[in-house]
Amino acid sequence: MEYKRGRYSKLLRPFLIVFDLFIINFLAFELLNLNVQESYFFPSDFLNNKYFLFFIYSTSLWFLSTFLLKFYNVYRYTSVLNIATLLFKQIFVFMIIVFAFEGAFRSINTPAIVTLKYLFYVFIIIGSLKLLSFYILKTYRLYLKGNIRDIILVGSNDNAKELLRIFNKNKELGYHVKGVFGQFKEKGIMGTIEDSLMFLETNTIDEIYCSIDELTEKQVNDYVKYADTHHCNIKFIPNTNRLLDKRLKMEYYGYLPVLSIQEVAINNSLNKALKRSFDVVFSLLVIVFILSWLTPLLAILIKLESKGPVFYKHRRNGINYKEFICYKYRSLTITKELKGTYVKPNDDRLTQVGKFLRRTNMDELPQFFNVFFGDMSVVGPRPHMPTYTEDYSKKINRYDFIFRHHVKPGITGLAQVKGYRGEIEKDKDIINRIKYDIFYIENWSLLLDIKIIFLTFTNAIKGEEKAY
Predict the structure, then answer these.
(1) Measured between alpha carbons, how far is residue 30 from residues 103, 107, 250, 262, 428 in Å?
(2) Which stretches within 255-385 are classed as H helix?
(3) Which of 24, 71, 333, 425 is the most exposed place for a label (fewest CB within 10 A)?
(4) SS3 at position 286
(5) What percent of the chain has pLDDT over 90?
(6) Which residues neighbour 187 within 8 Å (Cβ) at sequence distance 6 or greater?
(7) Which residues does residue 313 pair with via DSSP β-bridges, in sequence order?
């Protein structure tokens, strides 16, 4: 998620969109012969107005094409060359759109030279304002010290030093470096990495730039959790000597690549609302029609067999590494969570009721309360114990692990229905689990969620090898 705090520059993009649409349609009215009453396709009087049809057509396809080409995705670090490339791509696509419209209506007798003149004026006016606004913002940052982003930089390797040089040299970018932190306190370094976390608690920061190869998994967790809680952006300075991960969005500051967490389909506003609505409705149905009578029944059986609570509460890492209390029906004689306590076949800690609950996956049913409260989703990557999170991150690509924690964990997931559940016996178990989790995140759809729920149900009936 890209956060932007209270700046008037955030109004620039809507203004440019409105201005561009005005120019497109105003010039069309002035230059193109669109007010012809005879229609080739549409006999009704209402649709005989070609200008009205062009307005609907051009506005819709301009929105669509600019969205696909990311025409308005211009940032403070974007180069002029990239802006020019966007302009040429957009005008080329718009030229096809205009000629397609004229071709569909045979009654429009606009000479090709007039259409090209129209496209040229559109290109010059829209391009000029786009570049002008870009340079006005640069001047505003450089001389009036407005539109500034307060940042800290964590890392002391060559790439981190190069990024610091870019920020200090190019003041028009509008980055104010409030602190530089590294593994060791030395010249030019305000403090250690541990000091940076204390600094963040007493200062308002817009962006954190981390040299990820210099951080432990716990430190990465701390920065990601801080960024999520305080609504600031976190970006990663990679080691360019190795292949960069395609799952993170790459941006260039000059010639230096910087990575940020990629916005995937599952996390856009519409899909988040759709998935959350599905989760609330599904969890509510389970709570009302199943847990309402099953929980009292299981409570009696669990209490009769062994002392202890009905529910087992354990801490798990959720979205952006935030910890939450996850609920299960208690299936063991112990209630304390310990590292290295994966249940094994014929484990003597298992109760008789617990064996049945785990074999059928019914011990996970209380997690529908977690779903209803918003800590989890019905389908998603399974949450890990915080103590395991750091261990697992050492065995897989760190970027994949960060990417995996960018969505809510689930009661069930693609990895689980593919057999990668329960005890981690070999490194390949966690590697394959993460592989399926990443595939799920990148290819999410509501139909995929429904398919996984169906497979989870059928697997519970058939029985699974690791259901113990």
Answers:
(1) 19, 18, 42, 43, 66
(2) 269-286, 292-305, 352-359, 367-373
(3) 425
(4) helix
(5) 28
(6) none
(7) 327
Looking at the structure, tell me whether residues 242 and 288 fall in a common domain: no
Q: How are the residues of the chain apportioned to helix, strand and coil, as percentages rounded to the nearest 5?
A: 55, 15, 30
Each residue's pLDDT tens digit, 397-451:
666 777 787 889 999 999 888 887 766 666 677 778 888 888 898 889 889 999 9
Total domains, the chain: 3
Which residues are 291's β-sheet partners?
Answer: none
In this structure, the answer to whether residues 275 and 409 fall within a common structural domain is yes
Question: What is the Cα–Cα distance from 74 to 159, expressed in whole angstroms?
Answer: 24
Distance CA 214, CA 218 (A): 12
Tell me the C-alpha distance between 123 and 318, whole Å: 47
411 in a structural domain: yes
More confident residue, 34 or 297: 297
Which pair of structure tokens corresponds to residue 60?
């819709």
Q: Does the residue 3 lie in any domain?
A: no
**One domain, residues 171 and 134:** no
**What number of other Cβ atoms are within 10 A of residue 273's Cβ?**
10
Specify the DSSP element, H or E, that contains 22.
helix 12-31
Measured between alpha carbons, how far is 350 from 35 in angstroms, rounded to an integer? 80
- pLDDT tens digit sequence for 216-262: 878 888 888 888 888 888 888 877 555 455 566 777 777 777 877 77
Are residues 185 and 277 both part of a single domain? Answer: no
Residues 136-166 pLDDT 10s: 999 998 888 888 899 999 988 888 888 888 8
Residue 467 lies in a domain: no
> Structural domain of residue 314, as residue ranges?
267-462
Same domain, 274 and 393: yes
Measured N-to-C along each axis, helices 12-31 and 50-69 cross at an angle, to the nearest 10 degrees, of 140
Q: Which residue has the higher pLDDT, 38 or 395?
A: 395
- The residue from 234, 262, 290 where one domain ends is 262
pLDDT of residue 392: 63
Q: Are residues 243 and 351 in the same domain?
A: no
**Confidence bin at 59 (pLDDT 50/70/90):** very high
What residues have CB less than 8 Å from 293, skipping those under 6 apart?
none
* Same-domain check for residues 255 and 271: no
Percent residues over pLDDT 70 in the chain? 82
Q: Is the pLDDT score of 374 beyond 90?
A: yes
CATH code assigned at 203: 3.40.50.720
Domain boundary among 210, 233, 262: 262
Question: 104 and 14, same structural domain?
Answer: yes
468 belongs to a structural domain: no
